[in-house]
Amino acid sequence: MPKNPNIKKVLVLGSGPIVIGQAAEFDYAGTQACRALKEEGCSVILLNSNPATIQTDNSVADFVYIRPLLPYVVENILREHRPDGVVATLGGQTGLNLCMECEKLGMWRRYKCRVLGTQPEAIERAEAREPFRRAMIEANQPIIASRGISSVAEAQEFALRTPLPLILRPDFTLGGSGGGIAHDMESFIEICERGLELSPTHELLIEESLLGWKEYEMEVVRDTADNCIIVCSIENFDPMGVHTGDSITVAPAQTLTDREYQRMRDASIAILREIGVDTGGSNVQFAVNPETGRMIVIEMNPRVSRSSALASKATGFPIARIAAKLAVGYTLDELRNEITGGLTPASFEPTIDYVVTKVPRFAFEKFPAANDRLTTQMKSVGEVMAIGRTFQESLQKALRGLETGHNGLNETGVGIEQLRHEIAVPGPERIFFLADGIRAGMTDEELHELSAIDPWFLNQVREIVETEDKLRGNPLSAFTKSDMLFLKRKGFSDGRLAQLTGAKEAEVRAARLAMGIRPVYKRVDTCAAEFATNTAYLYSTYEEECEAEPTDRRKVMVLGGGPNRIGQGIEFDYCCVHASKALRADGWETIMVNCNPETVSTDFDTSDRLYFEPVTLEDVLAICEVEKPAGVIVQYGGQTPLKLCRALEAAGVPIIGTTPDAIDCAEDRERFQHLLQKLNLRQPPNRTARTEEDAIRLAAEIGYPLVVRPSYVLGGRAMDIVHTPEALQRYMKEAVSVSNESPVLLDRFLDDAVEMDVDAVADGHEVQVAGVMEHIEQAGVHSGDSACSLPPYSLPAVVVEEIKRQTKLMAEALNVVGLMNVQFAVQHAHSENPVIYVLEVNPRASRTVPFVSKATGNPVAAIAARVMAGQTLAEQGVNLEVTPRYVSVKEAVFPFSKFLGVDPVLGPEMRSTGEVMGVGRDFGEALFKSQLAAGSRLPERGSVFISVRECDKPKAVVCAHQLHQAGFPLVATAGTAHVIQQAGIPCRTVGRIGDAAGDVIGMMEAGDITLVIMSVAEHEGELNDARAIRKLALAKQITYYTTMAGGLAASEGIRHMRSVQVYDLQGLHAGTLP
Fold first, then answer.
1. What is the pTM of this model?
2. Which of 572, 523, 522, 579 is nearest to 556 (CA)?
3. Above 50 in pLDDT, residue 1020?
4. DSSP state of 653
5. Where does residue 132 fall: left (phi above 0), alpha (psi -120 to 50 degrees), or beta otherwise?
């Protein structure tokens, strides 16, 4: 049927901040959906708390609310706008859970707002483990022995009758949070307790183990007329026991027979019908016993999922877009497939004539105390996707796209015993250990017995390794044209071939080009070239016919950021999308190069042309040779493209915007130091050490404490604060490998300093400051992990103006053309003589650009992209230097709940995965809303525990006063309690851990403490106590803050707990704040 004419206003629920298990794929899905609904004439209202997304741009929906995803916010929006329907299936697990909360509170019924797409009853049947089990029995679908439980006692009863290991899956959680595999009773009880706590319904499902079985997924779309299509089948490289988000996955499934595929297809459609998914996209997961062929249904997601984004990018079929249109009444046969230019209907099942491989990216280096073994709880922070004509080609392309130092199946160099362990107990780099197992002489039978990986995949890896063995020791000159073509078709990069032959990468490239061997480009068209397509969605391979068909238009190429990781996330993709859309609107043909399937930048219609390729020198140069762009933007994708800019420039590629030399001047310690001296600007005392001995000697010159870090890093990788020569010596031995090429940077750490972030745009003639942000955390916490306020909430106007002046001075001296970010520290900020220090300058996009854009209403990345393309700020007629009448606070979100046992204290190395934003009339209101959005549930009752270091005690008194006024009983360790009591505030003293008179741990265990505020301890005994308290707070889900700034934020927020006003972005930017 056509669109339902009664649906005129639609509320779309977003997915909130980027977290492990729910990442940028929902920005991509939600953005597609909002645009699709607007195309149908619907007024779209969006609720999402994440400022870093394209989805929360004010052009995507008619009303954008960057607010906490909570029922009271939804009710305010319903009261204000009275939407006809709500779409909840495009906001991941967060959107789905919020929809169900509102359903239970009767909101949808009360405000006559229909749930569009999958109905609440169907969501309950699919998401709640016990109803799902009963539904599968009704549908005659095979399931495993399992039981839904709501208490540890029930769980133990089941465990007595079913042999271990057992798999535990909490209801309504994302990324398998709280779940796991129990091999013994101790871990069984531990996972049960954690899973019941994390499940919103306090229920979980216990299943018999399917460890070692093969795992498959089917992406299914259904409409109200019961038309069903399978968009894509996906096979996990790893067997059951590794979360599908952490496994290498392949599309289409490689080891299914046609009979098995049809059985799975029929089961998927039958499951959607039984659950009652009337319309939209769903994901069904299966396990298959490799010995008997027995098939089991594991679970289904009645929503667009992480795998849906992968399936969309793998096939070109826009699942979220189609799902949104189905939700307002269309059927699949009424909708056209845009990627074929409308030649095929959406009911035409995609067919692909290539192989897609997804490889996850992990961040265990940020959490060294975490258990890095992969289980049913997801731990990866990003992923890369590659397309090739064969599995081997796409696998090798994906591995080099990861940016983890690999350019193929590189050697690990470990011994046979460790190899066996790494192959048998999966970790983040098992694929490389498998290759080394083959090199060590292990047979496929041995490898299969250890890993349970399908023999077909093992044989594919073996072929690559055996091909490498034949190459070793052979000079490059021995290669014939047919040899080179054979190797490139297997996915070997020039860099890997250089390693194997002892040549340089440039020599391999030159030899290959001399043979006339270049990649050709094929189109992703959903129909295996059965129909012509005008959509330039391209991937490389080594065949005869090239389908690129480049135009002779004026072109600009944007290099994306590759896989998401901590320190380089969705914020950079946001900038890339803005660059492409702005220049496309100005008449440029835009070309996007990226390999991240989760993002908006790799949507088929974001740019004129999309090359889904690794962002490496080899791949980018090959695309430039075909497209011949007039300009390439390297400053928007984070460090990924920046690392290539010198080599691209040397190869004659036209880099537009700030020159590679200016970027190097800002990043090179010594060059930048000379520049600041010339400008008469201050920098903290610093030195550059190239040996361990140098480091100790130079540290003595500038004094402790020190901030130490390797050069050229993003996200504070391996950055630390050291207080003694012994700590510095330990850092030099354990954290970094220092050399002439890789020096270590030493900076004097500034105590009692306020950090600032500044984003500016310069065009070579004029510099405008787009935003000045004041960090809320003290100096020493990485800027990406600190909450920040725009405008600054405590600094005098004269200090802010001086910071702007210094920013402009540096932009002019570096001749910046485009974006620039500067980090400052202001020592003695609130005294009569504040001292401003420049910490670092980055003449590129920064992670704060989306936040500044949302807070001020200026599309900063788009404006800067136009500057880079030659349009001055004056010609654009823009004024970036606005001071909003409201306050915006950005708060970081952390993955500590995924890494139990890790100390959640904040420091100079970035650990957050995402961010949220709060807006208010004043700082307190904005701060409170940011805390809510970040998931910090500020308590309404219970005791507050405070323990802070000496220098924080004056602030602790302010915090204690506010909490006492709010009615909270206070407890504190002796030193902190004394200061609070001296100020006339009632406070009970508690002993240190193990004190016979009672300690804080006992109170936390008993549930008496509901809020913990601690700042970093200074002595070893205190450090150990503090670590234990923080870990317990994390395990018990007690809200905690590890800095005094965080504690003040909490006390300030508690004062605003009754403030429930919500503001839409468009109203804020128009100056119509009520």
1. 0.92
2. 579
3. no
4. -
5. alpha
